[in-house]
Amino acid sequence: MAPRSYWKGYLKLSLVTCLVTLMPATSDAERVRFRTLNGKTGHPVVSRYLDAGTGAVVGDEDRVKGYPRGEDEHVILEEEELEAVALDSARTIDIDCFVPSDEIAWIWYDRPHYLMPADPIGEEAFAVIREAMRATDRSGIARLVLGGRERAVLLMPRGTGIILWTLRFGDEVRPEEEYFAGIGGGKPDAKALALVKRLIDERTRKWEPDMVEDPVQENLLELIRSKKPKKGTRKSGPKTARGGDNVVNIMDALRKSIDGKGKR
């Protein structure tokens, strides 16, 4: 069964326009999730919105959005008012400019999405934009409203489609100089450097997705499968393992690693 569209709108470059659809490139659907239960009854715990002044439950029909203007003052905004100020980028990915594909540092990349034509009619226009970016080694910069906020996005050709990365906001990226300034810039010991290079060469292999598998997830699933459902049970938290206190000489550790005696 094909996944439902996450977003549908238009991709635009000057006068070239085509209908496109957007899908998240990653998913956490397989992550182990837990429900919060009442330990005495085994019943699920539900959350409710409460009035901070009266403590009464607030129903769905009574909840509105408010912007704080003071300690006890809010400006109330209706859904119709919010929709009226929606930007064009809520429906159109209008490519504003292009940048060399290798100029944007990885730290600005936020979340990847797959961008593809929404119907056969738009495939030709989509392909023209994609192949032109590939031929010039350029990536497009546009803006798109996702999750109620306008985001800068980066478009990169990938195979027969386009990868759309949401980019982090400027105030979200901390300058590296503030953290790396105090690190000594002296050259390391030549012998130690040679041993590390040899160790890197010996452990270099082709990238495989299993390198990022989560063993804790598999252990959790195995634990869940081994247990029978119970009501009103309480489980103590996991015991914290104490780490070792030994300080190992770096040269000795490197030599043992090269000789195959060290443990990962």
From TrEMBL:
Keyword DNA repair part of the UniProt annotation: yes
Pfam families: Ku
Region annotation (Disordered) ranges: 225-246
InterPro entries: DNA_bd_Ku70/Ku80, Prok_Ku, SPOC-like_C_dom_sf
Extent of Basic residues compositional bias: 226-237
Functional note: With LigD forms a non-homologous end joining (NHEJ) DNA repair enzyme, which repairs dsDNA breaks with reduced fidelity. Binds linear dsDNA with 5'- and 3'- overhangs but not closed circular dsDNA nor ssDNA. Recruits and stimulates the ligase activity of LigD.
Domain of life: Bacteria
Native source species: Cereibacter azotoformans
Protein name (record): Non-homologous end joining protein Ku
Family per record: Belongs to the prokaryotic Ku family.
SMART domains per UniProt: Ku78
KW Methyltransferase (keyword) present: no
NCBIfam families (alphabetical): Ku_bact (TIGR02772)
First and last residue of the signal peptide: 1-29
